[in-house]
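ESCALATION

Customer reports they have been waiting on this structure for their group meeting. Please prioritize. Original submission:
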Amino acid sequence: MSRKHVQIGDIDCGSDQLFLIAGPCVIEAEPLMLRTAERLKAMATELAVPLIFKSSFSKDNRSSLDYYQGPGLEEGLRVLEKIKREFELPILTDIHYPTQAAPAAEVVDVLQIPAYLCMQSELVVAAAKTGAVVNIKHGQFIAPDNMAKPVKKIEQSGNERIIVTERGYTFGYNDLIVDPRSFYLLGQIGYPVVFDITHTIRKYGIPSKDPRGGTREYLKVLSRAGVAAGVDGIFIEAHPNPPDALCDAASQYYLDDLPAFVRPLLEINDLVKNQALH
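Update from on-call: job pushed to the front of the queue and completed.
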């Protein structure tokens, strides 16, 4: 089944070229954010990989009120707008409430619907009606092919600029698995498919600041399997020093190590896509 192409700036999502969504989990101090964006842009240029910068102005699903939730909508969008302007990067951020959709869409290129909220009609419709690209994450609680239902809500709201993201499925208590069949089933919906690898390795029930809260040792094998299966993009949260990150410290990837991590993925993608042409 052929997939629709979704244009984000100069990036053709759905083409044979793998694209990358990367950045800190949540917006932290402005100097750190600018430094991270600068290094990601340099990496993207060096590797000739299309890049969408990602960070959240709010993480509304933290497991404790004591944990950092982000700077909020107004300050967060200010920082993201500065990154977009200074580094000429398209921007992706999460929204959690319908009222956040319109102001966020004035700044960012992609509105992301968190996995827990993928079935919330009012939120999905509000995002769709902005005309921005909508990246809707596969809920951990529904079968991959059932993601056709929230996608249909976006289409019925007049927007076909859609990306669907896999981020693991609930398996027992406090664990996630990635079923490769999901890449095929999500692809059958007809839009570009992204693999969010860093959220698939989170160990729920363990604070993300605890090193046991993530299993980075699985990132290489998971990402390579996803690219070999034909995903269109890779989503990876990256930070200059993950142990000090204010959110998802145990699962974000080390920024300095990211080029070496991404290079084999590009090679696998080229091999897979070239084989598909013959």
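Sent to customer with the following note: Residues 258-276 form the longest helix (19 residues).
Escalation resolved.
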